[in-house]
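Sequence only, no structure available. Ideas?
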Amino acid sequence: MSTLNIRLVEFRDAPAIQGLLAQLGYPDFTTAQAEERIQLHQASGYAMLVAVAQNQVVAFAALHWFQLAHWHGPMGRITAFCVDAGFRSQGVGQQLLGACEAFLFSKGCLKLEVTS
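Reply:
I predicted one. Tokens follow.
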């Protein structure tokens, strides 16, 4: 695998996000809807990370963190996670998951869960 760059999503990534969501089982999801989700994930308590290889987005993860009534720190949640079929079994998912953990820990999360 060539160098993998993990960064926050940008609006120009919407077509790639749409394609990855289709691979997750949402084939009718449009690029416009992907743009809406990117906008939503720029709000406080939300983020979306993308993994870029060979100048293309090959994976994404949607993140959310929030305060629980019964816990002293925020809970982090990965709400969607997908690696492009052509880039699976190459360590992309492992690197993206590590970046998700680091990002959520930087927000004070001590507990993480995956619901994708």
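The first strand starts at residue 5 and ends at 8.
Hope that gets you unstuck.
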